[in-house]
Design goal:
binds pyridoxal-5'-phosphate; single chain; alpha/beta; 371 residues; three-stranded antiparallel sheet; 11 helices
Length: 371
């Protein structure tokens, strides 16, 4: 007889894969696709099989060097999604307490439930610009806390968590022997000048930190699924053992492409930055023009998470998609149903038109609500 029933689905991913697509798609959080043709790669650079049992060594070495950690602390993974899953599956036993920010990227909560963890939440509040409240976090930590999980940049708001705050969280976690999982999938979108060290990752702040990342969201390279975990060497070894349960070996051509992408990351990143600068200006102008939205504005990243003042968000999203061919993510997927998430990582013209349509839909919605 089983004592508990595992969660075996993610309503957000199901929605994102099956229902989010629209002509003007503001529902994605990643940068638009980076074309293969713009990478200096030829057929001669690719191969089907190669030495990648636990990650192709040149890829692991590059990831270690850019992160300022030893190669044995790097585990390659199928995107940040699998990186999160592997890290959580290694750390959490059924019944362990997983302390997860709220709101957050739904998959973190879904996977913790799938693993049978006892999920406890700490709030990130609009009145506090969605920053982590260290007092509240401390009050939720118990002797049973095994994992504290956050996203940096924060999904769904784009809020940035500083090194000082992360180090304090690390101290709180260390006091009870917990790990701190930081999903850094959007962190490369923050300019290097905001960091004290060029390595950006929290993996260098102490052995209790586990960082996950990939080349997917910040660089528009989602298709090669090049992701990784940075963890203290002992935990990294245990993560590889869990990975043995899930996959025979990585996809070798994808790891080759990961190496080529990393060697050309300045160029790939420059395109993302230029596109985001233009789209952020369009988003700012749009938000300036809307009294019906209440929003925290992050300086970085691809997303904003406004509160709709004029009526139910699900009904608004239906109108937006049905009449205006535009999609955003309803806030219920982030446990804040009065909000919706706007993504600005897409093509410039598409994003500008999507924002214009969002504005037109808000006008119609507000009128029908008598606002
Ligand atoms: C916070 C966060 N982590 C992970 C992912 C998934 O990343 P990947 O595509 O690298 O698997 C997403 C995708 O939206 C995300 O928002």
């Amino acid at each position: 007889m089983t004592a508990f029933k595992r969660n075996k689905r993610s309503s957000y991913l199901e929605w994102a894969k099956l229902q989010s697509v629209a002509k003007y798609n503001l529902a994605t959080s990643g940068m638009m696709s980076y074309p293969l043709a713009e990478l200096p790669v030829t057929m001669a650079d690719l191969e089907i099989n190669g030495p990648d049992t636990y990650g192709y060594p040149p890829l692991v070495e590059r990831l270690a060097a850019r992160s300022g950690v030893a190669p044995e602390c790097v585990v390659t993974a199928n995107g940040t999604s699998m990186a999160n899953h592997l890290a959580m599956a290694t750390i959490l036993e059924p019944g362990d307490e997983a302390l997860i920010e709220q709101p957050t990227y739904g998959l973190l909560v879904d996977v913790a439930h799938y693993l049978g963890a006892n999920v406890v939440r700490f709030g990130r509040r609009a009145e506090n610009d969605f920053a982590i409240d260290l007092g509240e976090l401390q009050s939720k930590i118990t002797a049973n806390t095994r994992l504290i999980a956050i996203t940096n940049l924060h999904n769904p708001t784009g809020a940035f968590t500083s090194e000082a705050t992360l180090r304090r969280i690390g101290e709180m976690a260390a006091a009870v022997g917990a790990w701190v999982l930081v999903d850094e999938v959007y962190l490369d979108l923050v300019p290097l000048g905001e960091f004290r060290s060029p390595y950006r990752t929290c993996a260098r702040y102490g052995p209790q930190f586990v960082a996950t990342n990939s080349l997917t969201k910040a660089y528009g390279l989602s298709g090669i699924r090049s992701g990784w975990i940075l963890a203290e060497a002992g935990l990294a070894t245990r993560i590889r053992r869990v990975d043995d349960l899930m996959s025979g070996s990585p996809v070798f051509p994808a790891e080759l492409l990961g190496v080529i992408a990393l060697d050309n990351l300045d160029k790939v990143g420059a395109r993302a930055n230029a596109l985001l600068a233009a789209n952020r200006a369009a988003l700012e102008a749009f938000l300036d023009s809307r009294a019906d939205l209440d929003v925290f504005r992050s300086r970085w990243g691809t997303i904003a998470f406004p509160r709709l003042k004029t009526g139910p968000v699900d009904a608004f999203c239906e109108l937006l998609r049905g009449r205006f061919e535009t999609s955003v993510v309803p806030g219920r997927f982030f446990e804040m149903p009065e909000r919706f998430r706007i993504g600005i990582g897409g093509d410039r013209a598409m994003t500008a038109e999507g924002l214009a349509r969002l504005g037109a839909a808000l006008d119609v919605f507000g009128q029908s609500a008598g606002c």
